[in-house]
Amino acid sequence: MMSHLDGNAIAGPLSEIFGADMTMASGRCGGCGDVSPLAMAMVYLKPNAYIVRCHVCDTMLIMVVESRASVAIEIEGLDSLVIPR
Amino acid sequence: MAVFSRGFTGRRHEQNDALPPGQYLTEDFPVLSAGPTPKVPTDTWQFSVRNENDDVTTWNWDEFQALGPEEIHTDIHCVTRWSKLGTSWRGVSLDRVFEKIDTSFEYVMASSYGGYTTNVPLADLLDGKAWIATEFEGGPLDPEHGGPARLLVPHLYFWKSAKWVRGLQMLPTDEPGFWEQNGYNIYGDPWKEQRYW
Amino acid sequence: MTSTWKVGTVAAIHAETPTARTLELDVPDWPGNLAGQHLDLRLTAPDGYTATRSYSIASADSGPRVQLAVDRLPDGEVSPYLVNDVIVGDELEVRGPLGGWFVWRPEQTEPVQLIGGGSGIVPLMAMIRAHEAAGSTARFRLLYSVREPGDAFFAAELAELERSSEHLEITWVYTRKTPDGWPTPAGRVTPAILEASTISAAENPTVFVCGPTGFVEAVADILVELGHSSGSVKTERFGGA
Ligand SMILES: Cc1cc2nc3c(=O)[nH]c(=O)nc-3n(C[C@H](O)[C@H](O)[C@H](O)COP(=O)(O)OP(=O)(O)OC[C@H]3O[C@@H](n4cnc5c(N)ncnc54)[C@H](O)[C@@H]3O)c2cc1C
Ligand SMILES: [Zn+2]
Question: What is the pTM of this model?
Fold first, then answer.
């Protein structure tokens, strides 16, 4: 049985999409307004997907769907995402 | 260009006619959760079906049990490649449920406590092919495994067997549910390996 | 931060514990990594089926050599292959180095408390090595929880560092079986142990906690009770119960 991981665990697929480390990007949760680096979010694994949830209120922030051919991101519950330069 | 990993085959696949292609047998009941497990007490649990006229038929736990649960013995197949053979469940056949429903729509969207949805053609829910299951191997269904009640559609991949099911909505056309919008096959036949896009 | 898949060649392997092995990979374009980062490793079967898992990097050097240490989980898909089947010369696809949160940089001067369970020592080992290599005088304290003495990763190296390092202090916790003559019985990490054997919240340490998800959750909860702010406790959950 696999339980959740830290936001760090999706550094790989996100780096393919953004070409940069996204775990230090800070997201504002649309559910509770918390602002934290994605590394602090909770990551749940599905067979081809990572579900990223707010560590405060469990709101689904983003979903990353990975296959051999592509990596896709869906922004579900993030109000904003600030990427450090 | 893929680099093949010498001698790597994924989990060992057994020769067994009961196993769909690409599946392996497991004795465990692995759990892959997409979030915290919803806790739904049976005294507040409700199950409802909404038809094309927005008529909603609702059952509480006792009313639902009064529809008459039955014993189910079936194999289940998860898209993550495990299969379990000969599992035992107890639940109410959707034939019992749809006796009470007036609809000419042919597609269904199942929704769950916790917010997920999955789509299934009505024909796949009728004629003894699907249940709302409330017991597994002789005991109440664990919340981890979708309790108090989950949809059980064992001839399709197991994500169609929505955990923590709370209702069905009749639809005129087949529309993708949450997982289907996100890469899972719209139908999910394990014998045709309809896994992802 | 590089994101594409690269091919590494297994250059050396040695046994770490009865169920774990260290793998050294030569990855030609490896840009080096920070202590605490991980990589993703992808296996591909002849039919194109792939399995991807994350592994922390135990090394923190600038060269093309990357050290991983993998524990075999019963009935796992990838870890038994890496622990039992891989031989020197095999090629493995990796993506990384990854992550910028669970890392320690030699510029950091605040006290650092490392808390690892089982294979969770791997990224902490990279931090310990980077700390040594940089000659850092930042205070480092490690609490390492293992089932029994034989399950410790990097046992010889840690024992040597314990003797030689002026800035590293190590506390061992045995959850199932202690070494002979050990002063306390085997048991899990408790609030009392953490209070007695880790850098206190009053000293404002950065705390890195890594291991199976259950271990990390239990430890992180206790740390918050002991007064650490949740922002100063960085966690790396490996999954599992
Ligand atoms: C950031 C990060 C860093 C990590 N670093 C390390 C590291 O340095 N060293 C290390 O050893 N590990 C590390 N891990 C854990 C690693 O990624 C793998 O999770 C671990 O090796 C297990 O993979 P597996 O394929 O062997 O097991 P899996 O196949 O993923 O299974 C895990 C467990 O769940 C059970 N299970 C899961 N699915 C099923 C199923 N369908 N049927 C039956 N049983 C199932 C298995 O029995 C097994 O015990 C790290 C994880 C993360 C997120
Ligand atoms: Zn939130």
Answer: 0.86
